[in-house]
Prior knowledge:
Elements: E1 3-4, E2 11-12, E3 33-34, E4 40-44, E5 54-55, E6 62-63, E7 68-71, E8 80-81, E9 86-95, E10 103-111, H1 131-140, H2 153-158, E11 167-171, H3 181-188, H4 190-204, E12 208-214, H5 218-227, E13 234-238, H6 247-255, E14 270-274, H7 275-286, E15 293-299, E16 307-312, H8 317-323, E17 333-336, E18 343-344, E19 358-362, H9 381-385, H10 392-400, H11 404-409, H12 420-424, H13 431-494, H14 512-537, H15 541-567, H16 578-601, H17 608-642, H18 648-668, H19 673-696, H20 714-735, H21 741-764
Parallel strand pairs: 3-16, 11-12, 11-14, 12-13, 15-19
Antiparallel strand pairs: 1-2, 4-10, 5-7, 6-9, 7-8, 9-10, 15-16, 17-18, 17-19
Helix pairs in contact: 3-5, 4-7, 10-13, 13-14, 13-15, 14-15, 16-17, 17-18, 18-19, 20-21
Amino acid sequence: MTAVHNPDALIWDIPGGIHPAERKELSNRTPIQQAPLPKRLSLPLAQHLGAPAETVVAVGEHVLKGQLIADANGFVSVPVHAPTSGTVSFIGPQPYPHVSGMFAPAIVIDSDGLEQWCSLTPCQDYRQLDRDALVALIRQAGISGMGGAGFPTAVKLNARPTQKIHTLIINGTECEPYITADDLLMRERASEMISGIDILVQLIQPDQVLIGIEDNKPEAISAVRSALSEGNYQLKVFPTKYPSGGEKQLIQILTGVEVPSGGLPADIGMLCHNVGTCVAIHDAVVHGKPLISRITTLTGEALATPMNVEVLLGTPVGELLAFAGLDQSKLNRLIMGGPMMGFTLPDFAVPLIKTTNCLLASTTAELPPPPPAMPCIRCGECAEACPASLLPQQLHFFAIGQEHEQLKAHNLFDCIECGACAYVCPSSIPLVQYYRAAKGEIRDLEHKQLKAEQSKQRFELRQERLRRADEQKEVERQARAAKAAQAKAAQAQAAPAAGNDGSAAKPAGLSDAQKKLKIEASMAQVALKKAEKQLATHARAELQAQVDELRSAAASAQQALDTAIAANPPTAATPPAAADGALKKAKIDAAMLRAQVRKLEKLETPSSEQQNQLQHLRAQFEAAEKRLASLEAQTSATSVKETEAPDSLKKAKIELAMKRAELKKAEKAESDEATLHSLREALAHAEQALHQAEGASNKPAPELVRTDKKPIDQATRALKTEVAFARADLRKLERDENSPAEALAAARQRLADAENQLQQHAGNC
């Protein structure tokens, strides 16, 4: 790096850089003007980097000048204040200064023209405040960087660097063509700027303060030098070259130290602030005024009177241009910012925000459209012009190929998007546009990867929590099972003594106590096996102790079972009759066939195949009913033979069931009338025999209940439905504590009317 002699101080040069036409003389010849008060102001909630502010006012509310209308929403955020007094007329999407023409949340205030301030709290003796209170004043004033991307100033002051901030750098460079807002600010408000620097020094306690100004601002240099007559801050004037105003470039010029790639100035003990930010800090601390206005350059050959104005935030751009005498016939492009790093505004309705330092209304001759881009010829001029010592042509090819890893390896994010490379490119390639797009793609990809990684971590942590919870539940369940097994074993050891009197006959097979002991022993063995599997997978001390406890419990349960069986050996159990299983199966088969037959019978227009299937199923169903009746008869006969006195009532029931089955079968087979008559007489005799058997027995006769299955008419069904809906709506309103009394009364009346109509209809039927 080359040191450059300077009468004020030693300075250094930066690599690359260009010397475009400055055109600052358009707007720096007149003092700062006061912009007229607009009738309506639109205040976007995001005028800075970070989270948008959160609204604290409502539509229709009257606000005063300087009143808080949106509070900071998070650490990296700043509040928004009312630039004038008036009424909040709208809160929602409004035009936003962006190349896309996007809308963004904003608060709209209709001015009342009174400019009535809210109560302010000035602090003349700020040196008596501690650091946190002083930073809080700056944060509450809504100050963000006035010369760059708009990073919240309080956050910048609260950052915890790896080392002490030993150098405070004040940026008065304003290197981009056309823009003269900082130039006029330093000329007219140098003393307020120095006061703001004093406040920053009180906060940071640096070893030195360096103020950097390019040599194309002689009036500003003179004013600042005069204001520094009693201070110990060092003014450094250096040759004009674009982009000397970049934060890293200015540090390199003033100190000869380079900020490492990917690093911040704070990493090397330095901090930079814009001159406009210093004035805003002075106004906030000394006068208690929040940031509600700023100095903005109105320039370009399409304006009759280019100038610098102090303008309220939220003022529509169109009104400012009209104030400067815009000639619509001459206007080619309206740029917010300078010609190198600014962007074209699609609409005059967008508002001026905290970072708006210039509005450039250019003509076609002034800023002609670039010629069509041609292929890169590898001339290397872009690399020579790059102030960050990058390889723009390589970055261009990597951006086209979306080679993100190569872009990061070639330090894409060190690019400050100054546009010097595109300015000197003989092929007219819009290099900066490629870099911005590539940065956006990389940020989006990294954000998605971060979200995916966070989701994966959350899933893994959840799975681990569930696994531990399942293990704990299993341990607790096994412990309960072991305790139960031990208790049952203890009861079983005392059980044999109770059966020694021989008063009751032995049941077939195991006794109830022996069955319970066998179940407990089996459960203890299952719990032991599960615990052993878990111990093999996760060797833990608590699981080993649990396995030992379960093994002991299983042994105790098995010993208790063996003791009980030895004391009271089981007799051979009588196997269940095979007829019982056959009878159950016959009942199931008959029920299934009946269901299939009924399903097919319900079809209105069955196909020929379905009719054949129906006949086949009817035949199967008749056979199943016959088999069922036979099995029921056999079962009943067997039961009768097993008893010493046959039950005539059961015989009558069986006979009746068989006669009824025979009659049904004959009816379905469409037998002749003589056969049917004979079967009906046989069924009547069987019914008479059943009645006689029931009379001879001591059992009460069954009560026959006949129900009328007459269907409900349509009117009744509709009235009942209305009653049900009215009752449901009333109950819903009664459950809600906030239900209006009128709604409850109407719902009750509706239910009463519906019930009356239903009763009247029932009486008429």
